[in-house]
Amino acid sequence: MVAVQWLTLLAIFYFYVLLRIESHLLYHQDSSLFLFTSEFLEPFAKRPGGMVAYLSAFFSATMAIHWLGSAVLTLLTALIVLATHQLLRSSVGADLPWLAVVPAFALLMLLCQYVHVVELSVGLVVVLWLARAYLLFKNQQLVGRLIAFVGLSVIAYYLAAGMYVVLACFCGVYELAVKRQFLLGLLAVSCAVMVPLAGTRWFDLSLGDACAGLVLQSTHWLAVPTHRWLAFGIRVALFLFSPMSLAVLVWRGRAARQAKKRTSSAHDNDASSAGAGLERTFERLRWVVPPLAFAILLLAIDIALFDTATKCLLRMVCCAQNRRWEDVLTWSERIPRSDAVLHDIRTEFQVNRALYFTGQLPDRMFAYPQIPDSQTLALVANNVVDMARATPRQCSEIFFELGRINESEHMASEALEIYGDWPCLLERLVYINVLKGRPGAARRFLSLMECSLLNRDWARQIGRLLAEDATLSNDPIITSHRDLMVRRDSIGDAIDQEGMLLQLLEANPRNQMAFEYLMAHYLLTRQIDKLAANLHRLDDFDYPCIPRHYEEALLMLQETGEAERLDLGKWRVRQVARERLDAFKANLSRFPPHRTAEAYRTLYADFGESYYFFFVFGGNGEPTGSLRFK
Amino acid sequence: MKKAVLAGIGITTVACLLGAFLGVPKSRIPVDFLAASNTNRVARICPDYRGIVIPSNIAPLNFVVDEPGTAYGVRIRFQGGSTIDITSRTNRIVIPSRQWRELVDSNLGCDLSFHIHVRGENGEWSRFQPIVNKIAEVPVDRYLFYRLMKPIYIVRVNLAICQRDVETYEETTILTNRTSQGGCINCHSFAPNHPDRMIVQCRPGSGKSFWNGMTVVRDNEVTKVDTRALVKGPVSNRGRVPHSLAAYSAWHPNGRLIAFSANDISQFFHAVGENRDVFDAESDLAIYDTEANTVTTVPQISAVDRLETFPAWSPDGEFLYFCSAEPRPQDHFREVKYDLARVSYNPESAEWGQVELVLSAADTGMSMTEPRVSPDGRWLLFCMSEYGSFPAYQPSSDLYLLDLKSGEYHSLDEVNSPLCESWHSWSSNSRWIAFASKCRDGVFARIYFSYVDETGHAHKPLVLPQEDPTYYDRLTKTYNVPELAVTPAPARGSELTTVMRSADFRGGRKVGDASSMQSIEVP
Q1: In chain B, positions 263-282, which contact chain A (CB-CB < 8 Å)?
Q2: Which residues in B lie closer than 8 A to residue A409 (C-beta atoms)?
Q3: Rounded CA gap, B36 and B128, in Å?
Q4: Hey, are the CB atoms on B271 and A438 less than 8 Å from each other?
Q5: CA–CA dist B278, B391 (Å, integer)
Q6: Percent of chain B scoring above 70 in pLDDT
Q7: 8 Å CB contact of B178 and A209
Q8: Per the CB < 8 Å rule, is B275 touching A409?
Q9: Are the C-beta atoms of A557 and A563 separated by less than 8 Å?
Q10: Which long-range contacts (C-beta less than 8 Å, at least 24 apart) are formed by A140-143?
Q11: For the packed helices A512-524 and A345-357, what is the interaxial angle rounded to 10 degrees?
Q12: Cβ of residue A487 closer than 8 Å to a chain B Cβ
């Protein structure tokens, strides 16, 4: 292909990643800090695969910058394609650019599923170019090639660990199929297994670490592809593509035919150039065909594999981190109704959080799918170990926002241990330590961030402020959270959501988030008597009237005959709420008890967003894909 | 031809870059040490190496001058008159290792002083008052072992047991938990006078219950034992001993016996103040005989109505010191206060005496933990904190020294800070202690050395020096369980992990006791 065709393909790839995949979303799967310090490099340098991981950490950090991340992914893909092309041409003389483009499609298929491909790409670039280096010795004697293979194996395993298998397999196939050197070929292929096994012994690694890079190791829930086996298959195909292509080309004698075809094609071209003007025009347009084919295939991949749900979730996480709460709700509404992630507690957690920050939680909470489990509020589980393992980052966020500083510190520390030094965690730990009167510990985190490219400005700014005032008394985040913090010690609160929220209100009765989360907790667990008992707390805030869902809960309580004892003080339930309850009851009475499912489906459209519906049916998930909340 | 040209261009580029970074000679900063004007105070330096006693074999004490300036000059003057001059355009002062070693070796027991000069914006040099330190006549044990990890709570992904050569900056990883899939590795312990002996406890991350156990290195052999399965006789089958794996341990000076505690430990979390805390519901002591491969205990060290933990042998092996408390329900955790006790033991006949109370919590009003007897048998170093058995999580924890001759104890005021001091060990010459302190920031513990003189006075401590003096500033890991040793670890890496990961237990293993699987972060 001519340069302009390559450039067009790269441009298509770049803009697809930039505009459709939105490479900055990958940053939310892995935003580990990259530091320009020797102690950061040292642990990478000490283990096989560490250098690829180090480079990947650097490139992953670039994902934070939208255009740069896309450019990096495009560059890495281009290097893989170029290396593949070079390998096939140098080994069997086959100039097959279209075959070399196949890895780019494989990478796109992974990207469509939001698999973080940076480490995979860097590893492939390294091993493929080392394989290309091996072919520089193709005219050497057997011993020379053996020495070259051993030397390159050492380098490749040190640099790329498990992805060394690509080099070993390629060299093995080359020796077996092209050079007909069975001993060296078999040795090379067996090295694909033996070297990682030796790595476990030599470097004292677990098998997983010795084969690092071969399998997806991400721990972040949004980095795990929905179609795991497909993603795994694509990875395997990527690893085996070069050696297998070589084997197939040799087997079919493709290289020779290709050369022959090229010769005859050149003759044809000469002949046609002397031909009619129409053919000449067609010739001029021929360069469009490859990019067009590429774009059509890309479109096909997109239609077949693009993971819209994960994109929406990543968008939600991204918007939540930037505190764009309206956007969180917008993206939550774009999650395909049929997708299971819609009902994942982590999704509902973000929705409820966004509802609170947009002031809609007490009024519009049931306009979004809710499950009768208050775990969707603060992700509080029965077991702190489960919280620490499954949702430490989210728990840390919500605990911090509520004012549970110790619990937030706990979960941030767990997240730091699991995910590494993510800037958002370090920032929170800076604030937590300042709030807890430990400016020295805050400085540790700031010093760390000062060594990174992306976060140094923020760290330096806070560091300067901290040097002037160790309590950061003018920082709005600090002052607002200092007012919310609990003062009385207790133990084991993290697994008791109700107790935790009540303590927050005891410390500060004007903690609105704690109040609304407490009421939401009662709504979700259908403890409406407790909700009614806490209604007096409305006096501490500036609500113009009783929020809608609280009214609905009060009316439901009235239905049970419990509400008569209630003293609402200055607050009154609005007539519109009573009318809606009457309408709901009238509609519900049309269905006998054994036709609950039918009642659910029928009433959902008109009452699905009311608490009446949730209270009666124990949930408000969409009954079919066609129905939407108003 | 084309390739040759490209290669030539590449080589030339690399050579140019190397030349730019390495080849260009850096101009020295001229410092007239005598002409500088005096400043009437001592310069601030970090780490705080001011007024300390330093081990005679310690690596150079590189530091940062925490004073504004455009250039820095430091003259290190030894009492004998020798000097080391260092100039720097930055405030990092890096001392040449060879010169440092030679001059420290030839000035044992003498003073050394740092004369710090700083060039201001106006180009004039200022001289601060000299910082005077003392070189001890005796070295600290050459090897320091510790655990290095983030301040972990429940999940453990990356923790390591490291060995540091204090004479250089060389740090070697002995063991990481990556090889045990995120399990817990803890309680490394070395046998005094037996450099070939060591133990490490392992708790697996998930699923691999057979990774549980105590790995014992002895006579160049690495074995793994499940102490629960080795309980010998009905007398020993009591308390936690047959139910819990070994936790805190101590080698008998004969290098054969290991005293250990078997604990029913749980971790819990506070809403205010220090987050983490530990509660011992039940604990007992027992003895593992490495030759007979048996575990035994007696009522004196595993009483039904007492919690016994933190064993420590006297250097003659005739007494086992330990901590003992009355059990309380968990919601009364603040009332659990440990006494310091001891019991006599005859290793030949395996006979135990009666328990003697060494220090009573009722008298001190505090909980006493982590006793360690100095190798000369004169002193007992221990922690005192408000309550409980885990001083590392208590800001109130301080180090105290008990004179085993007089029975009097005192706080190590020079060593203690308002924050937590814990996890201590003695150098083999009984003149140095190493301990973990959170005095810098309250979260990240660092290891400090303090010189303890013949009268039991502990001098101002110095932090374990690092080649890069700003290393600790951005290190978000914490150190614990510092153990000093004269020799390097007898086994490391795959020598240990191969055995740890095998299902081959010396003498079999006990299966199916879920309570013993608790693996909270207790070294």
Answers
A1: 268-273, 275-277
A2: 275
A3: 9
A4: no
A5: 9
A6: 90
A7: yes
A8: yes
A9: yes
A10: A142/A181, A142/A184
A11: 140
A12: yes
Q: Which two tokens stand for residue A602?
A: 């029928």
pLDDT at B62 over 90: yes
Confidence of residue B236 (pLDDT cuts 50, 70, 90): confident
Give the mean pLDDT per block of 10 residues along chain A (630 residues).
Answer: 82 96 93 90 91 95 94 97 94 85 95 93 96 94 94 95 94 93 94 88 75 71 80 92 91 63 54 53 70 90 93 96 96 88 88 97 94 86 90 96 97 94 96 97 96 93 96 95 94 90 96 97 94 94 95 90 73 93 93 84 92 92 52
| Three-state secondary structure readout of A12-42 | HHHHHHHHHHCHHHHHHCCCCCCECCHHHHH
Query: What is residue A470's predicted lDDT score, i.e. its pLDDT?
Result: 95
pLDDT at residue B27 greater than cutoff 80: no
Beta bridge partner(s), residue B65: B45
Residues 6+ apart with CB under 8 A from B97: B59, B60, B168
Report the distance separating Cα A581 and Cα A603, nearest Å.
Answer: 12
Burial annotation B457-474 (CB, 10 A radius, 16+ → b, else e): ebbbbbbbbbebbbbbbb
- Closest partner residue to A445 among B152, B275, B476, by Cβ? B476
Establish how many alpha carbons lie within 13 A of residue B156's alpha carbon, considering only the half-sphere containing its beta carbon: 26
d(CA B283, CA B246): 10
**Residue keyed to tokens 């092209």:** A178
> Mutation test of the interface with chain B: which of A35, A491, A496, choosing the one with the most B Cβ atoms within 10 A?
A491
pLDDT in tens, B431-477: 999 999 999 999 999 999 999 999 999 999 999 999 999 999 999 99
Partner residue facing B153 (CB), from A404, A414, A451: A414
Please state, in angstroms and rounded to a whole number, the distance separating the CA atoms of residues B153 and B267: 9
Query: How far does chain B reach from its first CA to its final CA, in angstroms?
Result: 64
Contact at CB, A486 and B271, closer than 8 angstroms: yes
- Does an H or E element contain A559, and which? helix A548-559
Which of residues A453 and B292 earns the better pLDDT score? B292
